Amino acid sequence: MALAALAALLVGVFVGGSPLGPKSVAWSLTHPHAGGDAGTIVWLLRVPRVAIAAVVGGALATAGFLLQGMLRNPLVDPFLTGVSAGAAAAIAIGVALGLGAAFLPAVGFVAGLGTALLVALLARRGSGIDAERLILAGVSLSALFSAFVALALTRLSHNGSDEILAWLAGSLAGRGWSELLATLPYVAAGLVAALLAVPSLNALRLGPSVARAVGVELARTQWQLLAAATFLTAAAVALSGIVGFVGLIVPHLARRIVGSDARYALPASVLLGVTFVALADAASRALIPPQEIPLGVLLAFVGVPSFLYLYLRPSGAARLWGT
Amino acid sequence: MSLRGVCLAAGARILLSDVDLSVRAGEFVAVVGPNGVGKSTLLRSIAGFARPLAGTIEIDGSDSGALSAHERAQRISLLGSDGEVPAGLSLREVAVTGRFARRPWWDWTRSDEDLRIAGAALERVDLGTAGERDFASLSSGERQRAWIALALAQEASTLLLDEPTSHLDARYALDILGLLRSLARGSTSVVAVLHDLNEAAAFADRVALLGEGRVLAYERPERALDPELLGRAYGVTFVRVAIEGEPRVFARAINPPRRQEGTLSDWQRARHDR
Fold first, then answer.
1. In whole angstroms, what is the distance from residue B197 CA to residue B39 CA?
2. CB contact under 8 A, A215 and B150
3. Are B10 and B17 in contact (CB under 8 A)?
4. Span A34-320: which CATH code?
5. Which chain A residues have a beta carbon less than 8 Å from that of B93?
6. Secondary structure of chain A: what % helix, strand, coil (to 5)?
7. Which residues, including other chains, have CB under 8 Å from residue B274's CB and lie 6 or more apart?
8. Checking DSSP bridges between strand B28-32 and strand B189-193, what pairing results, if any?
9. Do A214 and B107 touch (CB under 8 A)?
C-alpha cells in the first residue's frame, strides 16, 4: 500500500500540462539545485502540487476514518461537521466583500473551524458529544451556510461567482509551497491526535458504553477525535476547496482490505487517501490538457460509482461497516 | 466496597434512597428486585457511570465517582445489559478489548500476556475454540458469554454484572454462575443482578432485595428470600418450598386465566370459512 502511494506520487510528478519528457523530470528530481526550466516546473509546480494532493488525500481519509469510528456510522464523511459549508460561506462572503484571493484559504480555514466548534457545542450532552445531535446540527448548519453560498452566487458578478465555483468544485490549481507550509502544522497536529486515539477507536468499535466500561475516557476521546478530524478537514479545505467522497470511501476501502482494527485501518486509510487524490489530481491535469478538470468533480465521477458498487452489490451493504 | 446513604434517581424520578450496602472481599452478592426498581442504575452508580444524588460509594477506599475511567476499569469491570452487536470483529478482538486499561490510553501495543489472558477468558466461558469467529455470527447466548469473557479479561477486583445469565440456556446459566461463584474469593468480589431468585438462592453469599424504593433486605439468601418480603417487593404471592433441604421460592399465579376450550378450532373454522 505504501508502494502504491509512492507510485501515485511519482505519477503525479511525471504528468502535467507542460510537455516535459520523463527523462528531464527524472533528472530534475535527482538534481534539485540544478535549476533550468525543467527544474523550475518540477520543483516549484509539480512537486508541491503532488505534495498538496497527498496531504489533502491523507487528511480527508483520516478525518473520515475518525468520524466514522467516533459516530459508529459508515455514512459519515468529514464534511458532516459543517467544516466545508462554513468555509464555503465565509469564502463566498469574502469574495463578495472583495477580499484578495491570497486571504481566502485562511478565511476558509478559520470559518471551517468555527463552524465545527459551533456544531460540536450544539451537539454537547453532559461533558461528551451525542452522535445524533452532532449529525443533526452538522446537517442543519451546512444547509444554512449553503444558502449563503447560493445567495452570493446569484448576486455576484461573473468574476466573483467563478472564484466561488472554483472552490466548490475542489481544485489544486495554483497552489504551491507557501499554502502547503501554512497548513502543515494543523495537519501534523491532527494526525498526531488521530494516532494517539487508535486504541480508543478500537475499543469504541464495541459501542460507547462498553468502551467506557473498559476504561475509555469517553468525553475526552470524543473531543479529541472531533478536534483532530476538524483540523485535518479544515486544512484540506483551505488547500483544495471541497474535494468530496475521499473521506467517505477511502476508510471503507481501507477497512475492507485490512480489517477494522484501527492499528492497521488508520495507516491504510492515510496511504489510500494519498494514492487516491494524487492519482486523481494527475488525471485532472492529464486528461484534457492544457485545461484542468476540477479535482472534486473528477473524484465524484470516479468515487460515486465505486461507492455504489461497494454498497449495492449483493452482500455489499452487510459487509460495508465490517471487514 | 461500600455504599452509605446512597440515593439514586433516573431523570427526575427517585429510584432508591438510603442504600447502605457493603460487599466484602471474596463475597458474591446477588441483587434482585422487580423491573424498574433501580438494579441496573445501582450497578452503574457503583461503577461510577451514574452519579448518586446523595451518599458515598467507595471502592477499595476511594470514591468511585472521583476515579478516572481508566483507573476505574482497572478495579471494576461492568457487564452492562445494553451490549451492542459490533460487526466485523472476531471474538478474540472483543475479549482483548478488556485489556484496554492495562496500559496508557495512547499505547498501540498488545502484549502476549494480553492475548493469553483474553484467550483464557474465552476458554472459561467455553468459547476457547471460537476466537476467530465473527462476533456478529454468534447466537445471543454465545454473545452473552463473550461479553462475560471481556469482563473477565479486565481482571478487576470488583465484578459488576447486570443479568449475566440472560440468553443463557440451563447448562450455561449454571456454568456461568458456578464460574462467578469460584471467582468470588480472595480479594475479588462479585455483584450480579439476577432475575431468577433461585439462582440467587443457590449461588449467592448474600442477597440484596430491592423494592418499595429501598433495600428491603440484605442478608443470606434463606433470610432475604422471604415470601412476605418478596410479596412486598414484587406485588405477587410467593411460596417457599424446600428442595433437597435447600430453600426455593416461586411466584404463585392466583386465579390464572384458564385456557379456553375450542378457541383454536373456532379460529381455524373462521379462517376456513373465509
1. 14
2. no
3. no
4. 1.10.3470.10
5. 202, 205, 261
6. 80, 0, 20
7. none
8. parallel
9. no
CA B113/CA A146 separation, integer angstroms: 53
Residue whose C-alpha is closest to residue A213's, from B130, B123, B64, B145: B64
Q: Are A60 and A228 in contact (CB under 8 A)?
A: no
Those residues whose C-beta lies under 8 Å from the C-beta of residue A159, and which sit 6 or more positions away, are none
Residues in chain B closer than 8 A to A198 (CB atoms): 106, 108
**What does the alpha-carbon distance between residue A273 and residue A295 come to, in Å, rounded to a whole number?**
14
A16 within 8 A of A237, measured Cβ to Cβ = no
Q: How many residues does chain B have?
A: 274
Question: B9 has which bridge partners?
Answer: B14
From CA A163, how far away is CA A158, in angstroms rounded?
9
Bridge-based pairing state of the strands B158-162 and B189-193: parallel
ipTM of the complex: 0.86
Give the Cα separation of A228 and A181 in Å (integer): 18
Specify which residues B190 forms β-bridges with.
B28, B159
- Residue-level pLDDT, tens digit, chain A, 323 residues: 888 888 888 888 877 666 677 777 787 777 777 777 777 777 878 888 899 999 999 999 999 999 999 998 888 999 999 999 999 999 888 888 887 777 888 899 999 999 999 999 999 988 889 989 999 999 999 999 999 888 888 887 777 788 788 778 777 777 888 889 999 999 999 999 999 999 999 999 999 999 999 999 999 999 999 999 999 999 999 998 888 889 988 998 899 889 999 999 999 999 999 998 999 988 888 877 777 788 888 888 887 787 777 767 765 444 555 44
Q: Which residue has the cell 486515539?
A: A197
**Which residue of B45, B99, B100 to mutate against A (max A Cβ within 10 Å)?**
B100
- B78 shares contact with chain A (CB less than 8 Å): yes
* Largest interatomic CA distance in chain A: 62
Domains of chain A, residue spans: 34-320
Q: Is A245 left (phi over 0), alpha (psi -120 to 50) or beta?
A: left
Chain B CB contacts of A199 under 8 Å are 100, 103, 105-108
CB contact under 8 A, B69 and A212: yes
| Contact indicator for A61, A124 with CB cutoff of 8 Å | no
Q: Would you call the peptide bond into A290 cis, given omega within 30 degrees of 0 as the criterion? A: yes
Grid coordinates of A60? 480527508
